[in-house]
Amino acid sequence: MLYRPTPRLFHPWRRFVLRLFGAKIGKAVRAYPSARVWAPWNLEMGDYSCLGDHVDCYCVDKIRIGAHATVSQYSYLCAASHDYTDPAMPLMTAPISIGERAWVTADVFVAPGISIGEGAVVLARSSVFRDIEPWVVAAGSPATAIKPRVWRQGTETDHDAM
Asked: Using one digit for the tens of pLDDT, what is the confidence trace for 19-54?
């Protein structure tokens, strides 16, 4: 009621609401109004990070999104599943970590217990079931590294200077 019906530009208000419910939110974080956060007290977002439109952030366990990282539209960060080998199918949780300057592009599924390294890019519609190393581009289902990510000099935006 306090989060989803807000206009797109009301990022400060949504940061306030997330903090009110226990999330650790850095400065200038952008969480869009259609992003869903379950159990915000388990969410940590670094400075200038972003949860895009229609992201589903299922924080049954800790989910950490590093500074300057982006989770793009329709992605699903899932920090819990069920143990299908047990007839009772108990809930199993494991934290998710997305490194600084990483980019989870559109419609990516990230499974419980996954770490996506600093600067990594996971391409659209991938499913991440194993950790992704820093500074690689990964794609597929399951997502695997397909090439290194090259950071060109002089292209970095200095947000602190703005």
From this structure: 999 999 999 999 999 999 999 999 999 999 999 999
Q: Residue 6 domain-assigned?
A: no
Overall domain count for the chain: 1
pLDDT in tens, 59-95: 999 999 999 999 999 999 999 999 999 999 999 999 9
Q: Read off the tokens for 77.
A: 């960060």
Burial zone of 51 (CB within 10 Å; 0-12 exposed, 13-18 middle, 19+ buried)? buried
Q: Is residue 5 part of a domain?
A: no
Residue ranges making up the domain that contains 68: 11-161
CA-CA distance, 150 to 162, in Å (whole number)?
25
Amino acid at 16: F
Q: Domain containing 119 — which CATH number? A: 2.160.10.10
